[in-house]
Amino acid sequence: MDKSTTYIKTFQDGTNLGVFSQINFSNGSKALLSFTATEFAVFKVGFMGMPTKKLFVSGLLSWLHILSVEVGYAVDSFPGGSKSPLKISVNVALECKSISELVNRFEQMRKNSTA
Length: 115
Prior knowledge:
alpha+beta, 3 helices, 5 strands, globular
């Protein structure tokens, strides 16, 4: 794996381990994108892959709305869950070069969805 590009380190979607993905950015920073029953959050990842600081949070329904506005995501439009909210969020992350760029992008998506 070329470490000079942003890449997915882990991806767990719909397993008993939870719904999350670790993204390693080209600048060396690392983020954990995590879905729970009530929220979507982005954490800074530290030593041994442990989340150290929550950098972005959105209520789950709010995040699904943001995705619908930004990328046309609709819960019922993808039979079999072929396009999960995690996968879409990860695709946005892969376009970024750093965790700060990702957080700024998500904040801009939130702002755009309420405009």
